[in-house]
């Protein structure tokens, strides 16, 4: 196919690329190569028209070039993310059906509530997957400040359907994203920029310290410390030694905030550390001791495929099992993994977590391959959030520190535990993560090192 100008050549190439978002990216880079080659021929004495023709001839037939580039530049669905996520959601759906088994429950309660929640979660995931994630990099500091400020408006963020959705309770899951965006915005500002990131990251800790909400501090501050360390290691804030001292200072401040939350004043008298731990779980001390005893006995007596045996010394085994089922079904509403362990044993306990383990392993591998700073930071923030959410929940499950006021995290296990709003929040994070991986190959950085996807070739 003969073309008379470079622009005609680029148009012919772009027409062969089916992924329309990749077309301008490829054409823009190809235009640079063609113009460089044209200038080289012109310096050798060719006329402008002849130099342009020779450059296009050397590049090759535009249809063939476009076909090859189409093969290379295709949106690659993140099956390593989606398949494990869908498997986890299938487990979640199965246990919801099992829990509310029966025609009347399914039609009158189950589908309006859990079916709608699942549809909403999948819709949010799909929406964010197809969006251009680089829009977050256009005003990153403003986005970071809005996400952080939203935490203070937590009581106002409630949606009422046939039950209340406390959206504000799950905003802390987005705070690592706020830290990632602030790092991205200030990474050229040196140590002052890093100090500003530290201040923004510590801001949400102030109300949580006053209220003793230590479980909110762990994921926010630990993920923030990890992201700051990643930024300093990547050299984004300049001088390393001073910056590592700032990261260490942030980590010490985070530890201090957690300790302060554990020893918060109430009714004019300081709690001891044990009292604070017990209070962080909610309920009275006798109930918490009873709950932990059951969990300890369950974990120690669980077999590979079911309960190995009833704990020794139990006078009424039937009543013990009944109490255990009652505890799991009605009291530990976040105890799905514990219920799986009690009914099906360790193999099932590990099997239901396998999809999330695969998802995280695939995600971390893809995260390391991201060349754009924005993509790497957002992916790391999301993966840190999900990793902590899963690990902390398992630790709480096996130690008896369960419930919404759990010591380590108030959030359920990603995708498979109780909590419809948390499910939607996790799906939103996964949709954004998949968008990063989908668009990673076509994201470029401008002269100011801002990530963007080129839209036009002229």
What does this 3D model show about the protein?
By secondary structure, the protein is an all-alpha fold. The protein folds into 2 domains: about 5-70, no CATH class; about 80-275 and about 350-450, no CATH class. Helices cover about 70% and strands about 5% of the residues. The protein is built from 20 helices and 6 strands. It has helices at about 5-15, 20-45, 50-60, 60-70, 80-100, 105-130, 140-150, 175-185, 190-200, 205-210, 215-235, 240-260, 275-280, 285-300, 315-330, 335-345, 345-350, 355-370, 375-400, 420-440, and strands at about 160, 165, 265, 270, 445, 450. It has a two-stranded antiparallel sheet. A two-stranded antiparallel sheet has the order 3-4. Strands 5-6 form a two-stranded antiparallel sheet. Strand 3 (about 265) and strand 4 form a beta hairpin. Helix 8 (about 175-185) packs parallel to helix 11 (about 215-235) and helix 11 runs antiparallel to helix 19 (about 375-400). The longest helix is centred in the first third of the chain and has 28 residues, at about 105-130. About 40% of the residues are buried.
